[in-house]
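Dissemination and training. As part of the outreach component of the grant, students in the summer workshop were shown how a complex can be specified as a set of sequence lines and then modelled as a single object. The example used during the hands-on session is reproduced here so that future cohorts can follow it. Participants entered these lines:
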Amino acid sequence: MTIALDGFDVKLLAALQNNAALTNAELGDVIGLSASQVSRRRQKLEEAGIIRRYRAALDPEALGLMVTAYVGVTLGAHSRENARKFRNMVTAMPEVQEAHTLTGDVDYMLKIVVPDLKALSHIINDELLPQEAVHHVRSSIAMETLKDDNLLPLK
Amino acid sequence: MTIALDGFDVKLLAALQNNAALTNAELGDVIGLSASQVSRRRQKLEEAGIIRRYRAALDPEALGLMVTAYVGVTLGAHSRENARKFRNMVTAMPEVQEAHTLTGDVDYMLKIVVPDLKALSHIINDELLPQEAVHHVRSSIAMETLKDDNLLPLK
DNA sequence: AGTGAAAAACAATGGCG
DNA sequence: CGCCATTGTTTTTCACT
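and obtained this result:
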């Protein structure tokens, strides 16, 4: 399942994560390859799972999603069962964009996107805090987003 | 530039952010519309900027990017010029996936993806801290990522 | 606002150098 | 890996409701 990537592959991946709407011929122009070779390499990269999926990136504000927040969650009683329930819950919540366990004094960091502060308050007070495992929640609201492209750095 | 979205549009956007590789005919099956209507609506949504771009989502680990970190940055001397330089710098850094100004005691939160801890250390010590505006940096490393799909919640 | 069919563009494959 | 030709799909446009 693993694969050796050469310079063409890396360039192709970089181009595709920037703009997956390019045709194989256009991609070929950018990276210096023929369209048919681009097609073959793409298939390999998709099969190998290096390209996970293709996605449309949407404008949150145009969809009324005005609030992005980072929510740090500290768990209290570290029972396996409660922790498991908490993890299942955040994974299933559509407002949770990202969820990671972190080093440091906060157990989990959630990135949450919602229409307004009322919706954020609802999530914190009515969904997160009632969980048995949750001891403490601390939210910070993004006032300004300088960058949010989530483009991986490819050399 | 603004547009009225009906139920078809919302379903179409939801389907496209999940999987932009679907053909218009497949999308039509999912949302209950003919391929030609899907094509017309897509064009509208693209022109209106609601669909910002199409992207390939890549597997970070397959590309050797093993470390995700959240770095909170506190600025010291709040001179406009130093803050501007800081903002330009983080915006230009490819390792910075996201950068937001936050409410609370941390001025900026950066999501950073790098190959290893050495690269993270380099960014913090040799790029961030030498900036005049930067007073304090605190990094937390993601030990486990439960969710990282960045799919917007569409009702 | 929608369908269905035609025309144009594109992707994917195979053969050859 | 480039180039070319072929085939099948897909997108887009058009006529019509």
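Residues 7-47 of chain B form a domain with the Arc Repressor Mutant, subunit A fold (CATH 1.10.10.10). Students were then asked to discuss how this feature might be tested experimentally.
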